[in-house]
Amino acid sequence: MTVRSILDEKGYSVETIGPSASLREAAELMAQKRIGALVVTDRERRVIGILSERDVVRVIGLEGPERLDDELDTVMTTKVVTCDTNETVPQLMEQMTAGRFRHMPVVQGGKLIGLVSIGDVVKHRLAEFERESSAMREYILST
């Protein structure tokens, strides 16, 4: 199973925000949309950063609520690990586990086309296990 199969099922829509938006705007958008991360992109939809709930908590917890008015380019994670649609689910799991992050932007031709979360990965792995289990049960019953 590949990233493409996950996106084909869940959709290619991604919430993005520009680097000059404030941390407050980003936090409000994440709360409104009930999402755990925003991909920070430039006008051409190139990924330049990512902001997760963890980033928001870290900044406010360490530096105080006065940072809410700071621009995202001062608080976002800039070393973003991305993938393409041909990567496999096990490859994603390995990268997310090793990097200790839960959201991975999907890029094609240098531009953002989707976002995969660890929840998406787990959901698809469980569905895969269920299909294998059903096939095995059917095989056993047919012999």
What are the defining features of this structure?
elongated; CBS-domain; alpha+beta; 3-stranded mixed sheet; 143 residues
Count of structural domains:
1
Largest sheet: 3 strands, mixed
* Count of discrete alpha- or pi-helical segments spanning 4 or more residues: 5
What share of residues is helical? Answer: 40-55%
Beta strand %: 15-25%
CATH class: Alpha Beta
Q: Report the order of strands and helices.
A: HEHEEHHEEH
Total number of strands: 5
N-to-C terminal Cα separation, in Å? 28 Å
Question: Taking Cα atoms only, what radius of gyration do you get, to the nearest Å?
Answer: 18 Å
CATH superfamily: CBS-domain
Low-confidence stretches: none
What features would you describe in this structure?
The structure is a single chain. The protein has five helices and five strands, in the order αβαββααββα. By secondary structure, it is of the alpha+beta class. It has a single domain, classed as CBS-domain (Roll), CATH 3.10.580.10. Helix 4 packs across helix 5. It starts with a helix and ends with a helix. The model has no long low-confidence stretch (mean pLDDT 92).
Concise summary:
The protein is of the alpha+beta class.
List the helices and strands and how they pair.
Elements: H1 3-10, E1 16-17, H2 23-33, E2 37-41, E3 47-52, H3 53-63, H4 89-99, E4 103-108, E5 111-117, H5 118-142
